[in-house]
Amino acid sequence: MRRFLLAVALLAVSSAAARADEGMWMVHHITAALEKKMQERGLQLAAGEIYNADAPGAALTDAVVSIGFYCTGSMISPEGLMITNHHCAYSDVSALSTPENNYLEEGFWAFTRQQEIPLPGKKVFFLKRVLDVTDEVAALTEDLRRSGQPFGSRKISSLMEKKYEEESGLEASLDVMWAGTKYYLSLYKTYEDVRLVAAPPVTVAAFGGDEDNWEWPQHKADFALYRIYDHGEPLRPEKYLKIAPEPLREGDFTMVLGYPGSTDRYSSSFKVDHIIEVEHPVANRLRSRQMEILRKWMDADPAIRIKYSDRFFSLSNVAELQEGEVECCHRFRVADGKRALEASMVADRPEIRPVLETLSAEYDSIRTMERRKAYYRETLIRGSKLAPYLLRMSNRTSDPARVLAEIRRETDPRVEKELFAMILPEYYKGIGPDFLGPMQKRLLHECKGDFNAINERLWESYDTLAAFIRDVSIREFNDRVPHAGDLLELQRSYIRGLYAWKDAKGEVQYPDANSTLRLTYGRVCTLDPRDGVHTHWASTTRGLGEKDDPSRHDFSLPPTFRALVDKAGTMTVNFLTDNDITGGNSGSPVLNAQGELVGLAFDGNKESLASNYSYTDGYNRCVCVDIHYVLWILRSYARLDRILTEIETPAQP
Questions:
Q1: DSSP annotation of 244
Q2: What confidence score (pLDDT) does residue 392 get?
Q3: Amino acid 652: pLDDT
Q4: What CA dihedral angle connects 640, 641, 646 and 650, to 10 degrees?
Q5: Tens digits of per-residue pLDDT, 161-203?
Q6: What does the alpha-carbon distance between residue 5 and residue 328 come to, in Å, rounded to a whole number?
Q7: What is the CA radius of gyration of the chain?
Q8: Which CATH number fits domain 7-121+193-263+513-646: 3.30.1490.20, 3.90.1170.40, 2.40.10.120, 2.40.110.10?
Q9: CA-based diameter of the chain, in Å?
Q10: Strand-pair partners of 622
Q11: Which pick of 2, 32, 625, 647 has the fewest CB atoms within 10 Å?
């Protein structure tokens, strides 16, 4: 049973150690100062034990993989077993599910190697080395410029990656840091034979669904297992993680290794204002309405749930993220903080003032048009599951018969027609009459502004629906946007100026996340989300019983699982740390001071959702599933003894 640390133990923790440390640090750039700081926080490893390109298999990063650069996984056995989040495997499990074998609802457990399911197209990447190629990129750019050849970013990336792939035999990726201030080249060993091994039922893995998403406490078993194969045999990884034998305690050191997707912490105050005042409000409102329609149909029909669960999952995750971004950016006054930073920068470097003034004018000039583009994207393009198929059907290179077969298999016309009934008035009113296409204007006139009548006309055929969507393109919006300057280059100038200003002051900086392998460090800790509210650092199996509600799908535990929970006593399910994470870190291993696996990162808390633009000390939290809860499920519920034998598991908790 977990408990709070005694007050006397808390007094022994220094105030410096009690404070969270911001930063998604590149693993190849663990400086002596950073190593020392982590060791002062509790780390019991040297930097070379975390990343060491010259000693294959000796470092923790050798056990960490990117799953298609959208999630992170880690090796946990000498036979290619990889663990990640269930929500990273959601699309795979959903695609494999049928009414006869509904792996999403019932779970999937491969009791033999032969039952492990291959997943064509899935790819994992092991980082082997990171090189600083800043000077080489500068020299190549100058050579191309002098010879009159193109020297844009795509050309540079193509030439650099081709060169290093030929030299190394590995897959290469050129990564731009601080808007071209630095260039790093990452070399990866890749594997494409990946097979699904295990995934719990969605009501166990994602217990609480979107209602609990970004909240605390949560009670999710957010894990799934894959196996990587090499030439038909289980991969023998150079490194795999050991399971921590000891339970966590409040204040324990934690380290997360993973591939965070993107952050925008070098963004200007003008960009933050634009995102939270112009783009997000439109998207948030329309996605919320779309989810209401999908939820109604999914609750009414299990067959529709199979078809739309992945769509709903993606919508809910993004919608709640962006709603939280707006709320937290206002609550923590993120734009005001950036304005204060910009004022300090101008005071030290007056030459940056024209960039800021032009940025301000540019965002003012595009405000109206960008709002219209947001309506266009969130209605015609993203407002239904059907739209991408219809656009493909109109493409000359597509086979219409094949696309129609996919439409019938993947969508339901009743759901889509109701979605279009919601979309149409929003689209017409949102973009305004001047931007309607010829067909759209004609239908509005012929139907006398009756959107239900327009919808009936559209549903005469899929060809009609496709023509309506293609009647306007995003290029037409872009061609009519007034500009005060080149926004992209202005943003780059701002980032380069901000980096140079901080560098001159001696500040150690980490670049924005960009799907490169990063390290963050922190501690197990509690959360005080609002005045007068204090939460524990761990949730337990007791909470599963308290929340279980058979009348609500997302809170309905399988009866056999509920019976086991009732007998399990009090076991940690999820825990909190203050590690600095973002999207792409999903599935990242959470490690203790000795580098042993204690859990998987799977979520942030609602109070952390401004972290794309600014780190908020005291509020940013990483929500993790406890590895011992995962092992308990494999042992007691799934009865996957072969997997438990394969993993070097500690004694049963």
A1: P
A2: 87
A3: 52
A4: 110
A5: 999 999 999 999 999 999 999 999 999 999 999 999 999 999 9
A6: 30
A7: 26
A8: 2.40.10.120
A9: 78
A10: 577, 604
A11: 32
